[in-house]
Amino acid sequence: MPETHTVPDTGEKKKMKERIPAGKPSFLRVLALLSFLFCSLVSSALLSAPAEHVIMISLDGARPDVILASNMPNTREMSDKGAYTWWAQSISPSSTLPAHSSMLSGSLPEKHGITWNSWKAEGGYVLSTTCFEIAKRAGRSTSMFVGKQKLEHISKPGTVDKFIKLDDIKSVGEYFLQNKPNLLFIHFSSPDEAGHRYGWGSQEQRMELEKCDKNIGLLREYVGKSGASAVTVWIITADHGGHAKSHGSKDVRDMTVPWICYGPGIIRQGQIEKPVSICDTAATSVSLLGLEPDIEWHGKAQLDILMPGQTLQEIIPETGKVK
Ligand SMILES: [Zn+2]
Q1: CATH 3.40.720.10 intervals, the chain
Q2: Ligand 1 centroid to 122 CA: how many Å?
Q3: What is the 65 CA–ligand 1 centroid distance (Å)?
Q4: pTM value?
Q5: 203 Cα: distance to centroid of ligand 1 (angstroms)
Q6: How many other CB atoms are found less than 10 A from the CB of residue 268?
Q7: Mean pLDDT for back-to-back runs of 10 residues, the chain (323 residues)
Q8: How far apart are the CA of 228 and the centre of ligand 1, in A?
Q9: 231: closest CA among 48, 104, 73?
């Protein structure tokens, strides 16, 4: 069941009691009580989150047209049955570490400060608030399984319960079964590595994407086994695309990435018409958990993708506040 947040006592009940003298006709008191209960129910509903778990998957270097030319049944099913765009935009420079920092801290490099693309022991951590930080502050569990150690620059101390190099997807599945993390990030690095070696769109790169897709399928089975499928939303995206054997420029082939959000009964089916930035990933992920995005983030929550009737539509995207 979606978690429901309690609404703080505003003293409304006390004020209401004061407004109704004991000697007035009882139907007025009943009416007042009913309207109070109705208001409380509406307030609670507006703050409930549609998802208990958000799983973010980054396919490093996965250019949308290369995905579409590959045999990726899981990814295709999730895009067909979810909200998707093949035209989301990365940030400049379209490189792994700055782009993942933007994806997970909702900010452009000028704000998050990670302008380099390798592990730097003296580099410190991303300067802007991360989605993991928002989740941890609210008492949610977080984890990152990464293909490249340099992403540790995003894992600020105390914000990620488990940060580990991705080895085998089964270990992620077992971890999910045992710990049920609320916010889980998984980074597959092999499509990028194949792109640098054999070229973007090469047969070798497509084969790596197909392996990633099989791993997504395995992870879906674990989530199913855990009984959490109905309260789990998946976001599949990429840090950047690429062309020839490289990336990092403002070339449309480097900048364009997929952005898929899948959650049956929660996420609306169809193409997202609005522009999507990878910076929107952080705000969307925390909003799906019923939490307020950081007001300083450049990225905004893509709340239009929620099914009609989902209560988060009542939250104003710009501020994360309830209307
Ligand atoms: Zn690369």
Answers
A1: 50-314
A2: 22
A3: 17
A4: 0.83
A5: 17
A6: 15
A7: 34 34 50 49 49 97 98 98 98 98 98 97 96 98 97 98 97 98 98 98 98 98 96 97 98 98 94 97 96 96 87 46 42
A8: 34
A9: 48
